[in-house]
């Protein structure tokens, strides 16, 4: 496919763009209307939170979806995207898939997928999903050797990115619509259940860190942290540079 000639098609209610290569699918999606999505085979400047680099080599799923949203629900959207990834991975037979607030999908202690949320226009959110499928991220960044995992490592049979796109967008749409209709209680309890078990965590804030027990996520997408004296505090994703699970 020629990178200069992106093509679009209709896919289960989404206007879907497919590209060979792009800087970042989230930036491409910035100009698209609601219920558009874009997938690229590779990204030359894939982004994580706080402008961290996201390795986006061929064989992974690099996807951005534009969804209508209310300002109040913006922080919860990455968790809905994570939930959609967990649901699809589990349907395919993956075990031990879980969420790590605010934007990671983990298999045991390794990162399977990351979500990057952008808000370019009022009323619209761009949800970027990076999912390792059969790519080799550690070739580009050796530090990912023991940190990243791919669907190819955990599924009984190989799956192609193209085959993942439709179920993932379908699941994402159902979850976002359900959230926008106010069905928040059920989704909140599903997100919290996907933490797997009580976890001791350390939050790296700007220059300081806070340790405690993960006590859940609230409806605003904030993390609730309970310290050793039982005192609770809540944190926005924008405040927390890194969440470390400390296994105490
Ligand atoms: C994220 O950031 O996890 C969000 C990643 C979102 C990527 C998607 S791809 C489609 C769309 N277009 C974009 O440009 N972005 C989105 P963060 O929590 O900041 O994690 C970044 C960290 O994850 C890096 O510092 C690495 O340690 C690690 N990392 C980088 N590439 C990885 C990969 N392919 N697999 C696992 N971990 C990776």
Low-confidence residue ranges: none
Number of domains: 2
Main sheet summary: 8 strands, mixed
CATH architecture annotation of the largest domain = 2-Layer Sandwich
Q: How many beta strands in the DSSP annotation?
A: 13
The whole-number mean of residue pLDDT values reads 93
Q: Please estimate the helix content.
A: 10-25%
- Order of strands across the biggest sheet? 1-2-3-4-8-7-6-5
CATH superfamily of the largest domain: Bira Bifunctional Protein, Domain 2
How would you describe the overall organization of this protein?
The structure is a single chain. With 248 residues, the chain is an alpha+beta fold. It has 2 domains: 7-192, BirA Bifunctional Protein, domain 2, CATH 3.30.930; 199-245, SH3 type barrels (Roll), CATH 2.30.30.100. It is built from 6 helices and 13 strands. Strands 1-2-3-4-8-7-6-5 form an 8-stranded mixed β-sheet. Strands 12-11-10-9-13 form a 5-stranded antiparallel β-sheet. Helix 2 crosses helix 5 (161-180). It is globular and about 60 Å long. The chain starts with 6 loop residues before the first strand and ends with a strand. The structure holds biotinyl-5-AMP (BT5). Biotinyl-5-AMP binds next to helix 1, strand 4, strand 7 and strand 8.
